[in-house]
Amino acid sequence: xxxxxLAGLLFPHIDKTPDYYEELYPERGLAEGARVTRFAPxxxxxxxxxxxxxxxVDVLTAQATKGVSYLRIEDTDKKREIDxxxxxxxxxxxxxxxxxxxxxxxxxxxxxxxxxxxxxxxAEIYQTVAKSLVEKGLAYPCFCTADELADLRKEQExxxxxxxxxxxxxxxxxxxxxxxxxxxxxxxxxxxxxxRSGGSDGKIxxxxxxxxxxxxxxxxIDEVLLKSDGIPTYxxxxxxxxxxxxxxxxxxxxxxxSSVPKHIELFKACGYKVPKYAHTPQVLKIDEETxxxxxxxxxxxxxxxxxxxxxxxxxxxxxxxxxLTLINSNFEDWRRANPRADISEFPFNLKKMSSSGCLFDxxxxxxxxxxxxxxxxxxxxxxxxxxxxxxxxxxxxxLFTADPVFSTAAVxxxxxxxxxxxxxxxxxxxxxYFSYLYKELYTADYTLxxxxxxxDAAAIAEKYIGEFSLADDKDQWFARIKDMCEPLGFTPNxxxxxxxxxxxxxxxxxxxxxxxxxxxxxxxxxxLYSIMNLLGENEIKARLSEAxxxxx
Length: 552
Known about the structure:
Helix content: 40-55%
Number of strands: 16
Mean pLDDT: 94
Number of helices: 23
Shape: elongated
């Protein structure tokens, strides 16, 4: 077979050689140990939480080694692509502050010297490499139709084939003569380009950075490299791209482990250095119906889309922090030792990733988010709430931002102290959490605990109208409440009440609860003294009076 002539017949328009691209995309010249990673999604929809998980691992790996991370868009499968799918991915990363060193930055925009970073713009590169494989006798055209391939599969299913695919005696076009190929081309028969696999029944062994040594059967399938329209398959395109973009570490989901043999063979056939592999665990959840673990589903699980967290108002810091608890087993210990440090200071290590599935737990995410929000400043909380509400609750945004000083003071109650409250998990909760501070949102509810009668509650509220003073400091404020207790049949001493409960109607905590309900319609709120100072004297008196009327 004259392979050079065959290559010319198949690729008459290709006038470059792989050496041209070796010079165009030289070795990066990074420091020893620096890792080059990539996140390579297809623009087939929104950014998945598993995608954010994977991208974060790529970026952290590069940052930890002073390397490079880049975003590549793998859009060779046009049937699955959606309009503006790239923007959906980019917007997701922008919201969470996940920034790549290089790659696609928006629809039609990119940065970096190793592009284009969109596969559909790299057709000439793939075809140049494909032509060189034909010249070396490592690839050949296959003219089998879809029907012929279907018949081949049926034959394998009822025969003695250990695996199904195009290989060995079933690879009907593998040994076509040059004359036969020329005849088929002259007739205009469509063709795909296949790898001439050199695999047999041997084994390959590779070291996975996360999982250690893995042994698998080597590839024997004559994989398709180029489809009939000249567009490469994922397997071939990614090998070319990872080489010319000088990727050192391919970090991807564990579902790709089965493809490693074919990928290693492709790298070697092309003469490329095989990158290091690291296969991350899948992001799982507990199925509510069966109680079993399963992969997060785009169809079943709203939390599979990162938009769920954006719309719900989870701070980006909370989601990233939670993902880090899944990514590295030592993150939570580090966080306890460094409660206010930025997550960029965390010493990420790819080897500390678990090889088993990560369980995505919304309850734990809420807990993590409460911790994250609790250490934010009042100014940060105000800005975040305003920004979120502007998009997702414009009516509340107008109310919340009408008096920035008041609203900032509201979110600062029990904040910016050594032990801040941890009540808010997401910005969408702020409206209800502080609704009693805004007349437009406040709805009175004077339901009392069972141990307090309406008559006693009315007496407490009525007396407090003439007792409180906003000029008091916090100690004086609480002393006034304690002084009210005995004349109303309550004790200012909780321990005394516990010793002899029949001697009193209740204790100072019950009196405070009545005042709290009268002013906020809630039994549990942040610091009542701070709330009263925000409500102001007139509003306090009005609410106490309304409560008295309700209880009489």
